[in-house]
Amino acid sequence: MNSAAPALTPTTRALAWCLHLLIVGLLALAAGRAVADERPHAGWIIAASAVCGLVYAAGPVLPGVRRSRRAAALWLAAVGACWLVLLALSPDAVWVAFPLYFLQLHLLSRRAALAAVTATAAAAIAGFAAHRHSFSPAMAIGPALGAAVAVAVVWGYQALYRESDHRRRLIEELTATRADLAAAQHTAGVLAERDRLAREIHDTLAQGLSSIQLLLRAAERALPQAPQNAARYVDQARQAAVDNLAEARRFVAALTPPALEGTTLAGALERLCTTTSARHRLAARFHLTGDPAPLTTAHEVALLRIAQSALANTVRHAEATAAEVTLSHLGDHVALDVVDDGRGFDPAHLPAPDPETGGFGLAAMRARAQALGGTLTVESAPGHGTALAAQLPLTPPADTEPEARP
Known about the structure:
Layout: H1 10-36, H2 42-61, H3 63-67, H4 69-89, H5 97-107, H6 110-132, H7 137-222, H8 227-253, H9 265-279, E1 283-289, H10 297-318, E2 322-329, E3 333-340, H11 361-371, E4 375-380, E5 386-393
Parallel strand pairs: 1-2
Antiparallel strand pairs: 2-3, 3-5, 4-5
Helix pairs in contact: 1-2, 2-4, 4-5, 4-6, 5-6, 5-7, 6-7, 7-8, 7-10, 7-11, 9-10, 10-11
């Protein structure tokens, strides 16, 4: 409808062209009837219609009318003045008031537009009554009703447009929010996967490489005096490398850890104790208590990794001679305890994790337990050994997500 409104929609352009054609048609009707009826001022009516049409046609092409309400008001005033001249010459000009209502309502502010529409309706009624040399209420019905219809239509259209624009902005905000949420979820997923990878690498490959390093050092020390012992250490280091290569391949393929293939968690822990005792100067023994209950893969993987990491820490740092690994089924919970007779440490004064010296083991074990809604506690003191206890509920809380298979 509004030929001067910026960023018009295709529907609005169509209505604007309809308004242009309506004004041109009504002006042509006034001029044509003046000629057909052979009115005394037919020439002036034709001239006034032509001038009014030219002034109106200048509005859509003037950039100022599109950008400024003041310029639009001046243009409407010029169109209104030409229309008043035509109204003074011909009663047929009263019909032009109807499209003028729409122009005023669209181009002016609400208060100014209402005043302009009221003045235009009053002028149309007065002009028509002057040509008829009489006045009756029926003469006021047409222009007044037309003004009321124009106000209702335009204001209703504006309300619908505002609502539509508001919904469009809400949709854009929702789309942007969804994009931000997707990006945040992607970032959270990347961080969670990075954390999982870090734990898996620490509990498998890093511990295996540390074990190989210890075995090769033992072989190096035994080589001059006891070549047979050195060969045994080298063979154990080779087997550790084979095992860790299998871990790496399963890790890449996201399969179950090799230690759990074809066996139970208890069997895997017993095998872990046997392997640790064979490769290092540590007597690791496994105990099973309670009635074994079926565990999810996430529980088995978490407990196996915690046991691997705990025994690796014992071998590397504790200088222990014996370690006890106990798997306990406690009804609705499963617990893993690793106790050694090493030199112990102060849990309150642990060194900060460092890429060169390590120190990520306890944090990784605690993260594994918490991911399944469980807990991990460490009790130790210098010279009194270390006791590590991990306890997991058999049914994880709803707000915790079971850890994916490595």
